[in-house]
Amino acid sequence: MTKTKTLIAVSGGLVAVGAAAAYVASDLEAFKPTIKRYAGPVLSLAEPAPKTASPSQLAAVEKLQIFPKDNPWNTPVDDLLKHPLSMLFIESIGEDAKLHPDFGVSWRGKPIGIPFDVSGPEQKKVDVTFRYADESDPGPYPIPPDATIEGGPDGEGDRHVIVVDPLNRKLYELFRAFPQPDGSWEAGSGAIFDLTRNDLRPKGWTSADAAGLPIFPGLVRYEEVKSGEIDHALRFTVKKTRKAYISPAVHYASRSTERTLPPMGLRVRLKADYDISGFPPQAQVILKALKKYGMILADNGGNWFLSGSPDQRWDMDAVESLKRIRGEDFEVVDTGPASDE
User: Fold this and answer.
1) pTM value?
2) 176, 186, 188 from 135: Cα distances, Å
3) Is 1 inside any structural domain?
4) Of 54, 101, 107, 222, whose CB is crowded by the most CB atoms within 10 A?
């Protein structure tokens, strides 16, 4: 598919390309008037926790099958062959760089991680206006006026909004989302996923994530860790990617054709012989998942940043212990050829 958007922006020395990576410089300035129009509550340093889903809502999510069991997110990769370029990919990301758990309780007074809301049958669907409408699902979306926004109501980052609808088994995700006075929302891009199907987005389309993937299935969630098992792949980011993607990714966010850079959708796993016995119990649950299901490259960001949801119940000593893992402890799995269409 011919790309209709190749907007480049530079922020902090990082180059981002494409719809889901375009708001990193001038676009942030363009959205400041929208931020000012927001009249809702703003988190203070004394309020690190936003509203959270109720126990019954969380239970409904945990009972929900997130995509069929044969979906790539739910497929073990511990028996797959190592990619022939595994070492080169690992070196380009950083052999000595630490795994960075990008979730927890709070950071600088705000929740850290990508939050999600749970929609009930009474939730009204609202209109969403997209900046990149040609690669977004039009909706409407069941987003409450006080939806939990990544980074908080005044956040200036990706501002993801994720809503899980257990009853209808649907997933709604927005990138750079801003509530409007009339109850509607403005966003950079958005995607709706049917959790009962393995459908991919059209080739060349973004989603609320740069790789055109859903975000929610790849998050480390407290309830899963508490249960003792994560039975799906996780989401991670790196600073520099290639102009290519590997299925189930369908979109790239780079202009570089350097073959040693990882394409979107790259899947890595923790080496089978890595000893996890000395880690805290919460961390061991996550590391076992990284051995069996691995993690999928979904966006440009920090190197080896592992995505999860904020929760006041995280044991931060256990979360921080994940930083003992380094790039050299991973290997790339061969899950298919890369495409640059």
Assistant:
1) 0.86
2) 14, 15, 10
3) no
4) 101
